[in-house]
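Below is a filled-in request sheet from our internal design queue. Each sheet records the structural input a requester submitted and the sequence that came back. We keep these sheets so that new team members can see what a complete request looks like end to end.

REQUESTER: design group, bay 2
PRIORITY: normal
MODE: inverse folding
CHAIN LENGTH: 489
BACKBONE (tokenized):
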């Protein structure tokens, strides 16, 4: 057996397929989320505040529905069924938006969000099911899968930017359907490989199975008109979403305090604390498709060596760092742990918050050194995105992987969905923060530089302080994660 065959034999069945499916499934989301802000303002005449709100709601529904998807997947529809059904809705959604009408925008977003909101948890659950709870390969698998997702982002951002420069939005949204369709084809080809393992639905047969299946299909169909209506009332919807997130947080707290198994209850407590830290991180990170994009377009010289840089291409700084850094970081962590160096979840979370804070500090520095016109050099924006991307590598795939370790088996789907719901809430906060700086009528960066510098500095300090608090709680969190009161050394 050669080296490649030995390596392949150590990869759990389905992991490589899910890596490829993740790549194609990401294309449509990359196109839509990071084009929505500019499409809404330039094609449909939204103000920057309105566009930031609708972009925030897009992220909130996408990530918030992951909680619902975590409950549906494996209970009413198998994870693979829900994934394929969701991707089909995404294909329809992109096609409707490509029509160009305002009504098509709302209905297309509703179709797309129903699909993407419910099916992402399915991918993560299908992957985590391929590992035993104590399997050390889980973190590496999620890092690789995260790298695959970002290959899809890279392709999506690159194509989006090319179409954005000519504002060929219809062609761009039709392109988005290609990736979604390919993800469906791959899932169907490897249908048996992606079968659910040890879920409540897999134990049902006959009428009990088909009854639950019918409920799942009804939910998919019924959510679309509900979301379309909510998107047309964005202000009230944003308030309702925040109240819902608060209710879920309270429910998780009660569930944790009442859990009867002490070791599992301690790990759930650690989950709650880490979740609060991640909320700060993602609230800043989710400003990329809204506030940071407006800042880049209006206050930064968007060219490199005389070549114009499309706004979506800036996001590829993030994707390149993750695609290269994901597998590299997995190997580095494995090497450090073999040497006995402590690399644990609390340390990674605190480091990610510090990197996010440093990334946002780079922006007011760029404003300080701006030229006479008020525009910052592109290198400061580049530095900010690199630091944010390294921070993302430390918190995001590890956050997904830790669910299998911290969540009791019966709560894994719900806690995976709740983890993603945090990103949805963060998207709403990011929309609020992005609307703080009003865009000038004259378009001069000198008008907004001072406000941006103040905002970015405040956000940076908040992230750095949260990272320091998380580091201070590290020993306590490690004891909770161990579940036996012992401090890992």
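RETURNED SEQUENCE:
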């Amino acid at each position: 057996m050669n080296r490649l065959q030995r390596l392949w034999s150590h990869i759990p069945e389905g992991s490589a397929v899910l890596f490829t499916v993740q790549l194609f499934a990401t294309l449509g989301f990359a196109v839509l989320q990071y084009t929505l802000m500019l499409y809404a303002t330039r094609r449909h005449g939204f103000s920057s505040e309105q566009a930031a709100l609708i972009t925030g709601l897009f992220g909130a529904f996408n990530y918030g529905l992951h909680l619902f998807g975590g409950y549906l997947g494996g209970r009413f529809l198998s994870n693979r069924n829900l994934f394929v059904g969701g991707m089909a809705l995404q294909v329809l959604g992109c096609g409707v938006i490509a029509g160009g009408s305002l009504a098509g925008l709302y209905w297309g977003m509703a179709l797309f969000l129903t699909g993407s909101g419910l099916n992402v948890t399915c991918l993560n659950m299908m992957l985590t099911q391929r590992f035993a709870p104590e399997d050390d390969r889980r973190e590496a698998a999620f890092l690789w899968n995260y790298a695959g997702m970002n290959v899809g982002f890279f392709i999506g951002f690159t194509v989006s930017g090319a179409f954005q420069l000519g504002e060929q939005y219809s062609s761009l949204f039709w392109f988005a359907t290609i990736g979604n369709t390919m993800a469906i084809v791959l899932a169907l080809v490897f249908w048996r490989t992606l079968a659910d393992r040890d879920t409540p639905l897999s134990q049902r047969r006959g009428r009990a199975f088909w009854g639950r299946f019918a409920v799942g299909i009804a939910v998919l169909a019924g959510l679309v008109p509900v979301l379309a209506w909510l998107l047309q009332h964005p202000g009230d919807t944003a308030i309702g979403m925040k109240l819902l997130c608060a209710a879920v947080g309270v429910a998780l707290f009660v569930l944790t305090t009442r859990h009867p198994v002490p070791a599992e209850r301690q790990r759930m407590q650690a989950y709650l604390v880490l979740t609060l830290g991640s909320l700060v991180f993602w609230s800043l990170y989710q400003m990329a498709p809204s506030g940071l994009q407006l800042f880049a377009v209006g206050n930064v010289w968007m060219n490199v060596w005389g070549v114009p840089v499309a706004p979506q291409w800036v996001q590829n700084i993030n994707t390149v760092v993750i695609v290269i850094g994901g597998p590299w970081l997995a190997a580095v962590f494995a090497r450090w742990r073999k040497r006995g160096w402590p690399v644990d979840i609390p340390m990674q979370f605190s480091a990610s918050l510090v990197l996010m804070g440093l990334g946002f500090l780079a922006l007011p520095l760029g404003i300080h050194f701006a030229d006479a016109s008020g525009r910052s050099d592109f290198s400061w924006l580049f530095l900010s995105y690199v630091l944010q991307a390294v921070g993302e590598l430390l918190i995001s795939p590890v956050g997904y992987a830790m669910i299998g370790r911290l969540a009791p088996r019966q709560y894994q789907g719900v806690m995976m969905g709740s983890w993603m719901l945090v990103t949805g809430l963060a998207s709403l906060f990011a929309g609020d923060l992005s609307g703080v700086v009003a865009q000038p009528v004259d378009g001069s960066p000198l008008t907004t530089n001072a406000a941006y510098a103040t905002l970015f500095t405040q956000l940076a300090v908040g992230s750095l302080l949260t990272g320091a608090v998380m580091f201070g709680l590290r020993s306590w969190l490690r004891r909770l994660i161990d579940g036996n009161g012992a401090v890992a050394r």
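SHEET NOTES:
- The mean pLDDT is 83.
- The longest strand covers residues 303-304.
FILED BY: M.R.
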